[in-house]
Specification:
The chain is an all-alpha fold and 92 residues long. It has helices at 14-33, 37-65, 70-90.
């Protein structure tokens, strides 16, 4: 319904999402790189793998549920964080 105060859910443009993801990877690599090149690469890899894991879960939930809910967004955040922390913990 249109009118005063009506909110319509939008979609993030793919180009915008890819740009934000790329910036996150670069910032993570630079931050990790303060401890050495290997740490920079590991940190960037952790972010990339976290993004991939979250994207796979999002696609599964969208296909399975026909959309997303707040619980799905929470699951995406937890999956991404767990993936990134696991990659960082397994590093040298």
């Amino acid at each position: 319904p249109e009118g005063l105060g009506a909110a319509v859910a939008g979609v993030v443009p793919v180009a915008g999402a890819v740009c934000v993801a790329a910036v996150c990877v670069v910032v993570a690599a630079l931050g990790g790189g303060l401890s050495g090149v290997a740490d920079g690469v590991r940190t960037a890899a952790a972010v990339v793998l976290a993004l991939v894991a979250a994207e796979l879960l999002l696609r599964h939930c969208t296909r399975r549920f026909g959309g997303v809910t707040g619980d799905v967004f929470g699951g995406l955040a937890e999956t991404a964080a767990t993936t990134a922390l696991t990659v960082l913990a397994l590093g040298g």
